[in-house]
Design a protein that fits this description.
The protein is an alpha/beta fold. Helices cover 38% and strands 16% of the residues. A seven-stranded mixed beta sheet has the order 1-3-2-4-5-6-11, sandwiched between helices. A two-stranded parallel sheet has the order 7-10. The protein has a two-stranded parallel sheet with strand order 8-13. The protein is globular. The structure holds NADP nicotinamide-adenine-dinucleotide phosphate (NAP).
């Protein structure tokens, strides 16, 4: 899938994970002519074109291709399954990122890689800043952290954006699960002792486009120099809630009559441990790129408005 326009100074941008939530949200934005980034030439690829589970296929893909920017939206995201598929999760979330970083470095491309709040241990009490100590609690978080570290060791141009609680009108996510269950049941049990900030994938996609449009970023002139976490940024929507609050808002804003009962994490055991505290401080990305980040309930409303449109496509 290749989208071009006639405007000069366009950059060639590769987006991996085209069928994922973030990949589809980026695709939605760049095919809307109102967005400012239309001058770029985007190539969206899925695992059929670029399989991150196979390092030789990554090398083969770039043999005769070069991009000004690579946005890595692909990942092994099955948090619980990762506990029993550690090798595959490591290949996709760590070794493939290392390979992409090496290629970006060789080809002088900017790599935007997406990471997660799961790199932290979730025991914090004030919003995590980029330089806070990491301590992943499960295989998924560990493999994502190793991907970050591999990219930082290779030092291509670009950025790592850590995000949390991603939802969208595409794919599977908490919002769509709640809407489905809320239509089937009178009441639902939802965890109240894990707090964080939801992220509407469209907002994160807009943030990525802002970075790509910023010449300083593409030339690697933005980050605070020579700090180990200088190319790491945190991004989620503004505000804070628990999964319980999130579920209540989903039902309120969608007009779904379903009662939500608060339960503790211990009453909903999962193979992978979840962080109790996922809140991230976004001051750095807001200051460096002049971003205004929407409040989570406003973005939830936007997504709910988009959902019927997406399901009609
Ligand atoms: N979802 C969240 O709550 C959350 C929270 C924090 C951080 N993140 C991070 O945000 C980023 C985007 O997440 P998302 O929610 O958009 O994920 P997603 O919807 O699960 O999409 C991930 C994409 O990766 C692709 N993929 C998986 N294995 C692949 C392989 N071997 N080769 C090529 N592509 C492969 C998948 O392809 P198929 O469609 O073919 O399976 C899918 O399109 C990821 O880096 C994720 O770790 C997500």
């Amino acid at each position: 899938m290749n989208l071009t326009s006639n405007i000069q100074n366009q950059k060639s941008i590769l987006v991996t994970g085209k069928n994922g939530q973030l990949g589809q949200s980026l695709y939605k934005l760049v095919t809307q002519h109102s967005t400012s980034n239309i001058q770029h030439c985007f190539t969206f690829v899925g695992r059929d074109e670029l399989d991150l589970a196979d390092s030789s296929s990554i090398e083969a893909y770039f043999q005769d291709k070069r991009f000004d920017g690579i946005v890595n939206c692909a990942a092994y995201t099955a948090v619980d399954k990762a506990e029993s598929e550690a090798e595959l999760a490591d290949q996709i979330n760590h070794l493939a990122v290392k390979k992409l970083a090496e290629i970006a470095k060789q080809q002088d491309s900017a790599l935007i890689h997406i990471s997660t709040d799961y790199v932290f241990d979730g025991q914090g009490f004030k919003p995590y800043v980029e330089s806070d100590a990491v301590g992943p609690q499960g295989v998924y978080g560990l493999t994502k952290l190793k991907g970050e570290q591999a990219m930082q060791a290779i030092e291509p141009k670009g950025a790592i954006i850590r995000t949390s609680w991603v939802y969208s009108e595409f794919g599977n996510n908490f919002v769509k699960t709640m809407l489905r269950l809320g239509a089937e049941r009178d009441n639902l049990n939802v965890i109240f002792d894990q707090v964080g900030s939801p992220t509407y994938a469209t907002d994160l996609a807009k943030c990525i486009l802002t970075l790509l449009d910023d010449e300083r970023f593409m030339l690697n002139e933005t980050a605070s120099v020579q700090h180990p976490t200088s190319n790491i940024y945190h991004y989620s929507n503004e505000g804070v809630c628990s999964w319980y609050d999130f579920a209540i808002a989903i039902f309120e804003l969608s007009g779904t009559a379903c009662q939500v009962n608060p339960i503790e994490t211990k009453d909903y055991p999962t193979p992978a441990k979840r962080p109790h505290f996922s809140l991230m401080n976004k001051a750095k990305i807001k200051q460096e790129f002049g971003l205004e980040i929407p409040y989570w309930r406003d973005s939830l409303m936007d997504c709910l408005t988009q959902l019927p449109l997406a399901s009609n496509e």
